[in-house]
Design a protein that fits this description.
The chain is an all-alpha fold and about 230 residues long. The chain has one domain. Helix content is about 70%, strand content about 0%. The chain has eight helices and no strands.
């Protein structure tokens, strides 16, 4: 089951990145590195979110599921993987923005910064909150010994990955296609806010996930029998 889950996750993340990687008409996202960045970010953030969720479950139930030493090991793994992800991310940005000669890229990034919160989302949401803060918490011993700090790092890493997906799927689409006949047409950029139906879909997905988690905690043998331990804070 674990092997099947890993394969499905890898296929999902790589194909999701490839979906935007092949959008040649969008000069910002046309790059073969997009699937790699999607997979690497998922590998880095997925264990961190699972670790944070395990700690929250232990707090809520008063019973320990995973030893603290294992949680710190997962945190260090996520920290080093986030560093690798940041390395590839900045090299990719440098190649596309400064060393590359992709037509329309410079104009596309200029349009992004002028008409969308892409700059703030990238440097604050993705880099500061999603990479720098979790790496510091996960890899510095004085921070990763404290379980609330690990939950904070996992939450920050999750926020960073959400902002990255948002920047790719929404902000990047403000750049108009560069093929004819749309090359001479500059569409007006308007503010966007999710509709009630979109909020309902998002909350419904979150509700189903929480229902599945609740049923798993209730019926799966996650806890040692007849053992109630207090988590170390």
């Amino acid at each position: 089951m674990a092997l099947i889950g890993i394969l499905i996750s890898l296929i999902h993340q790589s194909s999701l990145g490839a979906t935007y990687g092949i959008l040649k008409s969008r000069p910002v996202w046309f790059k073969p590195s997009m699937p790699i960045l999607f997979v690497l970010s998922a590998v880095a953030v997925g264990p961190a979110v699972t670790m944070g969720l395990a700690i929250v479950v232990c707090w809520a139930t008063g019973r320990r599921t995973v030893p603290v030493k294992a949680l710190r090991t997962i945190a260090r793994f996520s920290g080093f993987t986030l560093m690798a992800y940041a390395y590839f991310k900045f090299w990719d940005l440098a190649v596309i923005s400064y060393y590359g000669r992709t037509p329309g890229t410079e104009k596309a990034f200029s349009l992004l910064y002028q008409t969308s919160p892409y700059g703030f989302g990238f440097w604050v949401g993705e880099v500061a909150v999603g990479i720098v803060l979790p790496v510091a918490i996960f890899l510095i011993p004085r921070f990763n010994r404290n379980l609330p700090n690990l939950v904070l790092g996992a939450f920050a890493a999750g926020i960073g990955i959400l902002v990255h997906r948002w920047n790719v799927t929404v902000s990047g689409l403000t750049v108009p296609p560069d093929f004819s006949p749309g090359v001479l047409y500059q569409p007006e950029v308007a503010a966007y806010w999710p509709s009630l139906a979109e909020w309902g879909v998002a909350l419904g997905i979150l509700g189903y996930a929480m229902l599945a988690l609740t049923l798993a905690i209730r019926y799966l043998p996650l806890f040692p029998p007849h053992e109630t331990t207090r988590m170390i804070s």
